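Good morning N.,

You mentioned wanting to compare the apo and holo forms, so I went ahead and generated the holo version with adenosine-5'-diphosphate. This is what I fed in:
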Amino acid sequence: MIQIDDLGLRYATARGAIDALSGVTLTIGRGEFVSIVGPSGCGKSTLLSVLGGLLRPTAGRVLIGGEPVTDPSPRLGFAFQDPVQLRFGGVSRHRERAQSLLEMVGLKGFESNYPKELSGGMRQRVAIARALLLDPEVLLMDEPFGALDAITRERMGYELLRIWQGSGKTVVFVTHGISEAVFLSDRVIAMSARPGRVIDDRRIELPRPRTPTSQEDPRFLEAARILRGLLMGPEDAVQAQQPAERQPRSAASSRVPT
Ligand SMILES: Nc1ncnc2c1ncn2[C@@H]1O[C@H](COP(=O)(O)OP(=O)(O)O)[C@@H](O)[C@H]1O
Ligand SMILES: [Mg+2]
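and this is what came out, ligand included:
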């Protein structure tokens, strides 16, 4: 579904060139749920922008469904952290679909509320519903749950999986939460510090549907441990194996690079 060949992206700035991505090669299958993890500033958002046709690569290429990506396309839906514009404005052509999407994400009855009247979780639901509005084949999500508290974040993960399961949609999910990536995904791609390149491409062999006990599965723990070691260096990984690992996610995520 998505083919990324030797992708590079160099930003030209007043103070010189910044290589955000270099030599990224990756293939993502139709219907796959793939997470991208990596330290802050490694180029994750840049990569999503290139996939979404918002930024032109300066090297290599991206094909989606066999076609080069040149502009934003209705085949691609975007959901970001901190959605600012929340109302389903300008969607009168799609009103019926908007209604059913809001119902699907549990917001029936909130159609005419103002953003400030919605909780963080509700806003994120609106963002997901909005991204699904044009029934895209590919959903590009940039730290969509980053602003949520730990419990809402976990709940939204289940919700997203429920929406995705059986939809045939391809999801590219950017996060810096290692556990979240492993829990949600078919595959986790780890990126190096800038310029971002792929340092690990790991299939997560956990049965679906994922449940709370998935997080106790030895395969979950092993994948998370390896990824932590790759992204944080051996010392932190060793600490992460100790009982602190079983603390609530809010405590665990504070060890993740931001
Ligand atoms: N518009 C821009 N102009 C110049 N540099 C940028 C721009 N956007 C991002 N960068 C730089 O590119 C690198 C990657 O940024 P980004 O893709 O946002 O990383 P991430 O999403 O992984 O945190 C960072 O060093 C960032 O400062
Ligand atoms: Mg980012």
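The chain is about 30% helix and 25% strand.

Happy to go through it together on a call whenever suits you.

Best,
F.
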